[in-house]
Amino acid sequence: MSEQFTANVYCKEERIATQTGNDIDQLYTWMLIQVNGHFDDIRGEIIDNQTNNIVRTFRKAPIE
Q1: CA–CA distance from 14 to each of 1, 29, 44, 51 (Å)?
Q2: What are phi and psi of 40, to 5 degrees?
Q3: How far apart are CA 39 and CA 63, in angstroms?
Q4: Of the candidates 15, 13, 10, which has an alpha carbon nearest to the alpha carbon of residue 42?
Q5: How does DSSP classify residue 40?
Q6: Closest CA to 1 of 25, 29, 20
Q7: Which alpha helices (H) appear in 1-64, and where do they start and end?
Q8: Sign of the torsion angle spanned by Cα atoms 45, 35, 18, 27
Q9: Of 52, 3, 12, which Cα lies nearest the Cα of 30?
Q10: Cα separation, 14 vs 36, whole angstroms
């Protein structure tokens, strides 16, 4: 059985982490933990693997 969602975290345009799972809230928490300590332009998205739609996103911009 395959996982329902895939979470990707990006630093600028480079994917820095990927995780799959069935619990969207756990994946969202996982993404936020991955960006801890990064101070660049960071973003993340969770994709529904059946529809390929983005179901949740976040963005963390550097403090200027």
Answers
A1: 29, 20, 11, 23
A2: -90, -170
A3: 8
A4: 10
A5: S
A6: 20
A7: 24-34
A8: negative
A9: 3
A10: 16
| Domain boundaries along the sequence of the chain | 5-60
DSSP β-bridge partners for residue 25: none
10-residue stretch averages of pLDDT, the chain, 64 residues long: 91 92 96 81 94 94 69
Three-state DSSP class for residue 20: strand
Pairwise CA distance, residues 64 & 53, whole Å: 32
- AA letter at 15: R
The token pair that represents 22 in the structure block: 């069935």
Which residues make Cβ contacts (< 8 Å) with residue 51, sequence separation at least 6? none
pTM of the complete model: 0.85
